[in-house]
Amino acid sequence: MASYNIVWKSSAERELRGIDRRYIPKIVEAVEALSANPHPLQVRKLYGAESLYRIRIGDYRVICHLDVESNTVTIQHVRHRKDAYRG
């Protein structure tokens, strides 16, 4: 299996900087693991979306877009679970 490139949207980077610091290393580690395997057990496809997935890390959710053709995982959002699925 080919490795995937991880691309962070600037808005996702800003969201990451604004969360509780104790979760940041766990979130970064989970996102980096997607480069080797974009479909680990904790990744779930979002209902109604063609290629959006979420990763659960404690109380936080990482919303990402998986592009199989270009082998790219784009990190869209890093939000608390209460805000993760809002526009």
Q: Which fold name fills CATH's third level, the topology?
A: YaeB-like fold
Please state the overall shape, judged from the principal axes of the Cα atoms: globular
Rounded to an integer in angstroms, the radius of gyration calculated over CA atoms is: 12 Å
Mean pLDDT: 89
SS element count, helices:
2
Kindly give the count of domains: 1
Main β-sheet description = 5 strands, mixed
Q: Portion of residues in helices?
A: 10-25%
- Which regions are unreliable across 5 or more consecutive residues at pLDDT < 50? none
Give an account of the 3D structure.
It is a single chain. This protein has 87 residues and is an alpha+beta fold. It has two helices and five strands. It has one domain: RelE-like (YaeB-like fold), CATH 3.30.2310. Strands 1-5-4-3-2 form a five-stranded mixed sheet. 22% of the residues are buried.
Which terms summarize this structure?
5 strands; 2 helices; alpha+beta; 87 residues; single chain; globular
What's a concise summary of this model?
The chain has helices spanning 10-17, 24-33; strands at 5-8, 43-45, 52-57, 60-67, 72-80.
